[in-house]
Design brief:
Rossmann fold, alpha/beta, 6 strands, DNA polymerase, domain 1, 11% strand
Length: 274
């Protein structure tokens, strides 16, 4: 059994801005939502049986209380923001397991779902569909992998090491040192990606660095590591079978008509029969 975990927030952004190449800036009210539904359907049509989608119901999390510069919803275009909650409703109506995050982030849901699924002996592989470097910390050998849609890259532990220079488990330490502009924290001044990887491979986690390497920046580095470390303790499901797709709910036909997703409905029904 393969378990597919999809970064719904990333997919929503991807489809929203991808559509603009064809709509000349006139944003269909549910265009990105429909795009994400098609993306999930592609998985189902190609044999996926167990699928879960994580979304950011709100953008802020506990991390905003720890670091004032951490990412917020500020700057998200209203036409995009207006599709966040409809995406969750549409996925639910389509019968797909969806985890809307409020106090935590979609990345935390993906990390927790991957951790839970990997504990099930019937699961052969867990595929996390996102290019987000944060999720590289969840990769475990060939069993939990990150799938990057562009180029259909499958990043196992070896690929993560090749790309970032460290083991997957050291990704939070790496991000703490070099920073993450997308998430809004700067890292430690004077330490770049190569230098950070060299330090981590020599000394291990930041907590084990010899005194003096980070000096006064040690506490800040440890704070950034907390920001970069994804939660894996969320009880999103009790049994991996809860992620099995059994077709759309009875409400999906009406919902699909409401958002103008007739083609999604047709594909969904065909996928269920298949």
């Amino acid at each position: 059994m393969l378990v597919h975990l999809v970064d719904g927030t990333y997919e929503l952004f991807r489809h929203f801005y991808g559509l603009r190449r064809f709509t000349k800036g006139e944003d269909p009210p549910f265009g990105a939502v429909i795009g994400v539904l098609h993306t999930v359907l592609e998985l189902l049509e190609t044999g996926a049986t167990h699928v879960g989608v994580a979304t950011d119901h709100v953008i802020e999390s506990f991390r905003n209380d720890l670091w004032p510069g951490y990412k917020t919803g500020q700057g998200i275009e209203p036409a995009l923001w207006a599709q966040f909650h409809p995406l969750e409703e549409a996925l639910t109506a389509m019968g797909v397991a969806v985890w809307p995050m409020v106090e935590l982030e979609a990345d935390d849901a993906l990390a927790s779902a991957a951790h839970l699924a990997a504990q099930d002996e019937s699961v052969e592989k867990v595929c996390i569909w996102t290019p987000d470097k944060d999720l590289a910390q969840c990769v475990r050998g060939d069993r939990v992998v990150q799938v990057v849609r562009r180029g259909q890259q499958i990043r196992n532990a070896e690929a993560v090491r090749a790309k970032y220079g460290v083991e997957p488990a050291l990704i939070p330490d790496l991000l703490a040192l070099v920073g993450d502009a997308a998430d809004g924290y700067p890292g430690i001044r004077g330490i770049g990606a190569v230098g950070a990887a060299r330090l981590l491979n020599r000394h291990g986690i930041i907590e084990e660095f010899p005194a003096g390497i980070l000096g006064e920046d040690r506490d800040r580095a440890l704070l950034f590591k907390i920001l970069a470390t994804l939660r894996t303790d969320l009880g999103l499901f009790d049994d991996v079978e809860e992620l099995r797709w059994d077709g759309p709910t009875q409400d999906f036909a009406a919902y699909a008509e409401q958002i103008g997703a007739d083609r999604v409905l047709e594909r969904c029904l065909r996928a269920k029969v298949a």
